[in-house]
Every structure is written in C-alpha cells, then in structure tokens.
Design a protein that fits this description.
Three copies of one chain form a homotrimer. By secondary structure, chain A is an alpha+beta fold. Chain A has a single domain (2-129), classed as Jelly Rolls (Sandwich), CATH 2.60.120. In chain A, 27% of the residues lie in helices and 37% in strands. Chain A is built from three helices and eight strands, in the order ββαββααββββ. In chain A, the strands form two sheets. Chain A has a five-stranded antiparallel sheet, covered by helices on one side. A three-stranded antiparallel sheet of chain A has the order 2-7-4, sandwiched between helices. In chain A, strand 5 and strand 6 form a beta hairpin. The first copy, chain A, is elongated. In chain A, 55% of the residues are buried. Chains in contact: A-B, A-C, B-C. The interface between A and B is medium-sized, with 29 and 31 residues.
Chain lengths: 130, 130, 130
C-alpha cells in the first residue's frame, strides 16, 4: 500500500492527484490490474472528473456549497456537517483499471482529491494489485 | 462471501456496522487484501463517515431529507423515490483495504449501513480477498 | 477487459445495461469473483437501482435536474457543469460480486449507465476477475 500526501489550501479544494497516483502505479510494478484509492478522512473524498478546464472543479465546489450549505441548522457541534454530507455523497473510495502499467482513464478524466473542510494535510491510500 | 443482517428502526437510519464487518474480515482469515461491501437493496446504501458523534449521522439523514424531499411530485407509485435517489448518490458498494487482518480505516471513520426506506430487515454482502 | 458500447437518446438517460454486463461476465469464464464497471467519461456515471418500474429512473433523472439545475450561473464555458456534478455524485465505478458465473444482485437491482449530457455514443469498461 502506498500513501500519498495532499496539502489542501481552502475549505473546498479539489486537487488533481492523477500524476501522483500514476507514479504509485508505476512504482508498484503492476502491469495489468486495478488501482484502489481510499481516503481515510470523514470530511474529504475522491472523485474522477474533467481535468482540462479548472472551471469544472470550481463549479463542482460552488454548486455543492449551494445545495448543501455550510450553515443549515446542523446538530453536530463541530460545525462541519456539510463537509461530512458531501463526503458520503462523493465517496471515500474509487477504483481504476490498470493496463500496460498505466491508469486506464478516459481522455478528459483526472483523479481529484476532494477537500470539504480545509485547509489541512491529508492522506490517500493507494493499493495496486494484479 | 459473508452475509450480514441489519435491522433498521426508522425510515432513515444510518447503522454503524464496523464491528460486524471487522468480524467478517477476521473470520475470513485474510491478512492483507481488500474488503468489498455490497448492499443488495435499491432503497439502502453503504457509506463511511464519522462514528464518534451521533449528531453527524443525524445531520446526514436530515439534510438528505431536506434536499431530496420524501414528497416531491414523483412518478413512482410506490412513493419511495426519494429513497431510490439517495441510494444512487450514496452508492451500493464500498471497498476498504485490509492489513494485518484489520480494516484500514481512518481515526474517525466508521462503516454505515444507510437505510432510506425503513424500518426493514436488510442484508449486506461482504467479500474479503487477499 | 471488455468494452461495452452504450447509445444514449436524450440529455439525461439511465440505460439498463445489466444483460450486457452479465454477458461480459459469462464470456469471461469467471465463476466466482468480482465485476468492476468503469465509465471513462466525465458527464456520465454508473449506478445500481430498481429495474422493475421505469418511473424510478425517470424520478432519479428529474429530481437530480431539479436539485442541480442545468443553468445555475456556472463558470465552465461548455455549459454542462450540472452533468459533471451529477457524475461526481453518482460515481464513475461500481463493483458487483460474481458467484456461479452470475452477477449477485438483489431481487430489484439493475445496473444503469447514467447519461447526463447526451445523446452520445458512450463506453463502459468491464473487468471480471476471480
């Protein structure tokens, strides 16, 4: 299992980690298999989405904020329930197929670490298997 | 494949099943591998989120109800479309890494069975592989 | 790895692909294992939900449109940010257990390809492993 470190810079922050995940795949020596990504936090998640236009991740961050507002009469005293809710919707894990030592992603796909309660120092677990 | 039984007590009910999943992992004898969870229902899901403060799961249940209301002019005659929608967003499966015979979860993470149309008797499939 | 082709017919289109996925499982010759589905697009996803009443998928499509409107002041010039957002929430991958050469789904479960920016010609990657 590899462990990636991600430094997030704001409350919401979608960080493109595709290159780091690809490096973990290359380091694993696995040619054909799967790459499992797991985020061990409860206010951060992982997703796959467009990497070309940064406006896409801005729109994802802003729309999720609009639909699941930071303040909305939540019971949880820490005040970050919106981040917990987004985490359960986006999800803590993602699986990508590996072929020829490469992540088999679509043309426009990048892998994003999704911070919903930053800025923080975060981790992602990567497990590559044949 | 192990099969867990979950009894839910209300329409929305996030039930912490971490201990039962860990038991399935221990019973499997797998030391290092992955644990796949699969919910074979269409109005229930599985997620990973904070297990320490019960207010977190209350906030998740309440906010999802607010955003995806139980009555909202749905076409489905059974009247439980909100539960189907939440199920597709939270998701039917989850994968957790296993190391040293233990689920490798973050400090605050618990595994929740998510009931959205209870109370009911439910099942979760657990597959642990090396 | 198998590759399925899916033709979608409208902007939102949940297409039942259970039979095609089962065929890929059968063709793989794998008796017991897992079937990983991966959608290599950024405005389409995969989910598991009720296959019996078509009103369920209509309600999913309509409610997601209501909550994440097509026009909502998005920054992304292509104008399809709502489709990107829904994709990250529903998710790009799904894993199903295989037993006796069959997908182990619940009684009411079907596998749906979820188009959010169609109509288009789409692909789904299927990887079946023992």
């Amino acid at each position: 299992m590899h462990e990636l470190r991600v430094k997030t810079r704001s409350r919401n922050d979608l960080v493109d980690i595709t290159a780091e995940v690809q490096k973990a795949v290359s380091d694993s020596g696995v040619d054909d298999g799967v790459c499992l990504l797991f985020v061990p936090h409860t206010t951060a998640a992982v997703t796959i989405n467009e990497g070309a236009d940064p406006a896409v991740r801005q729109d994802i961050e802003a729309e999720l904020d609009k639909v699941f507002p930071w303040r909305d009469g939540y019971a949880h005293a820490e005040g970050n329930s919106a981040a917990h809710i987004k985490t359960s919707l986006v999800g803590s894990s993602e699986t990508v197929i590996v072929g020829g030592g490469r992540l088999i992603l679509g043309t426009w796909q990048s892998i994003y670490f999704c911070e919903f309660d930053g800025p923080r120092d975060r981790k992602v677990y990567v497990r590559v298997t044949a």
